[in-house]
Amino acid sequence: MMRLWGRRSSINVQKVLWCLAELGLEEGKDFERIDAGLHFGKNRTPEFLKLNPNGLVPTLEDGNLVLWESNTILRYLIRQHDPANRFAKDIATQYQSEKWMDWQLGTMWPTIRIAFLGLTRAPENERNYEVIRKSYQDANQLLGLLDQQLARTTFCSGNSFHIGDITLALCVSRWILLHQTFPDKTGERPQLHNIDSWMKRIETETKYSMVAEKELNIVK
Length: 220
Ligand SMILES: N[C@@H](CCC(=O)N[C@@H](CS)C(=O)NCC(=O)O)C(=O)O
Prior knowledge:
Layout: E1 2-5, H1 11-22, E2 31-34, H2 46-51, E3 59-62, E4 65-68, H3 70-80, H4 91-120, H5 129-152, H6 163-181, H7 183-186, H8 193-205
Parallel strand pairs: 1-2
Antiparallel strand pairs: 1-3, 3-4
Helix pairs in contact: 1-3, 1-6, 4-5, 4-6, 5-8
The structure holds glutathione.
Glutathione binds next to α1 and α3.
């Protein structure tokens, strides 16, 4: 049985849980999950650091293979655990999805993460509201690029749902929740209609509800 290390509230663990659900794999039957990270701890123990020297979640064990980096775990899961080949696509679709995954990890998340951590993790007296607002406003600009893509295709890599959509939708959900919870700190959130329609499709056509959060996980 596969073993997934990570708390359910982590964006990166949620990517993996959502992907496992899309593949029809069930917690307790096909994989076990161990709560780790934040107040659960366990991610700095010598045993854990042997699995993932970064001390971060998610970390996946599948037999002798140990993987960390959430997006890599998604790539692995659809290669190794997708007997119906639901996610096996033509090369163009596959690499469009990969492109958005790299953009999510290398561009989108580092931008909005500043506002996210500032508002949900930093104590109030340590917050730099100018930096937080800038992070949020920069994220608005970036999501304009995704919105343009979604004007052309129903999902990020074409007209079918793929793992790139998983990584992006979890960023977008935090973008929405941050503005809902702290509108005076984030500044304006533009209406991006193609993103709105895509999120509705994601909610109704995928297993997003398995990981969807109604409110921000604020840890102080
Ligand atoms: N690039 C890594 C980042 C992993 C990461 O930053 N994980 C966070 C949770 S989202 C973590 O483990 N934080 C420490 C903790 O939860 O205690 C990935 O995509 O998996």
